[in-house]
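Supplementary Text 2. Reproducibility record for the structural model of the 354-residue chain.

All settings were left at their defaults, and a single model was retained for analysis rather than an ensemble. We include the record here because the model underlies the residue-level annotations in Supplementary Table 4.
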Amino acid sequence: MQEKKKVNVPLVIISLVVIGIIAVFFTITQKIKNSENTTPNVIEESSSAALTQTPETQAETLVETTEAATTATQTSQTAEATSNLPVAAKETTTGKKEEPTTESMQQVQEEMTVPALDESDMSSGKASVASASAAKDLPSDMSFAGLYNQGYDVIGLKEFIYNNDMSPDCRQRKYGYNSGYDIGARLIDFTIDTVKMKFNYDGKTYRIQLWKGQYISGEVGTVGGEVGIYTKDGENFNGDHFNCAAEGDELYQEMTILWDENGDGNYTSQLTRNYSLHWWQTGYVDGQLKNKRDSKPLKLLSHMTFKDEEQASAFCQALANQGFSQVSTFNPTGADCFKQHGKDVIYIWQNIGC
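Retained model, structure tokens:
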């Protein structure tokens, strides 16, 4: 039997620290540019959507590596940020450019945090057909269980790893998300694509963001995807930094990653995250894309239940704005399409933004 590949934990941790530092630099720039606003946004940062595998044999190494990386980051971050960051100058009331002062830089840096990671940040799992969502009061094409009963391969049974996205102590939840993390991911070995849907609901701006692609390449590589829910108080928010959805803004959802591994057009389900309440749903399996810069061989299938039909419709409009097509009958063999039934939405993503 071929020995199962294991994720190189120290490599992943170092990559995440790099993403964290890049994200901090990005956020400092944004905060200084917006410092003239009368109601500035309070920005908190984290490392990127973390991917790490933690077998018991590497647990001790993981903790030591994380602590060392975090200490090094925190002690060197302030000096490096000031000297290396291409900071945008502020606009004064006279129209002239005013360079940020050392004091303003220091104030911004003191608000930044790059969290440590340890073995409690990841888990492994395996879906089962029996645990797929029941299709109560839904058409058969609106849930994974219903599609499976029609004969579609939509429930992935491979063993997978995922971030502890259901834990109340999930570290990433404390820090929100912005495009700085996506930019940072491109500079290291996280070759992933993303698409964002932004809409207003109940006095807040929502952003539901999807990712899929190659999370670390080579022998230790994994492929997978994520669905994240982020909010900001007030409608029509035009900034970039969002908060991770609070307890009352989580949504029930399920997710399957499908992969055309052989390049023959046959997409097979790899992993399934079961229908449950989430602000962030993640999953990764061992594997290597033929071209890590092309995530089209991966599809992300998701079913989400919103608070009400109004919220679901707002999300569907955001999907349409990004190029997704609305269909009357949902077929998981399609691409970049969605269907709404009341407060439930099912959609599949393949090509948009890739």
